[in-house]
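User: quick one, fold this
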Amino acid sequence: QVQLVESGGGVVQPGGSLTLSCAASGSFFSINAMGWYRQAPGKQRELVATVTSAGSTNYADSVKGHFTISRDNAKNTVYLHTNSLKPEDAAVYYCYAEVVPAWYRPTSYDYWGQGTQVTVSS
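Assistant:
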């Protein structure tokens, strides 16, 4: 099985910064993509950013320019570096990983972390 463990959430003032991290562990062959989604109360879960094992990144328009995603393949860890946080960035942030199992490599499976709360408040 695969576990995704997130950390780094908390309470920050508007304009502040946080770095979220997510480490994948368990039995698998590889991880194709990792990323972050978020969900605010009463809203649908939305893409924040993703990064492939080759380093290609994709960002939601709302976070371009003030969020940065990075990945350490050797540690199976993905990071989200945030700055200039706004109240509308407050949400539960979920780690995502597209995992290739060791037992059947032609397929992949999506895994989600439990989420980490980011609160932006003055």
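User: anything notable?
Assistant: The mean pLDDT is 96.
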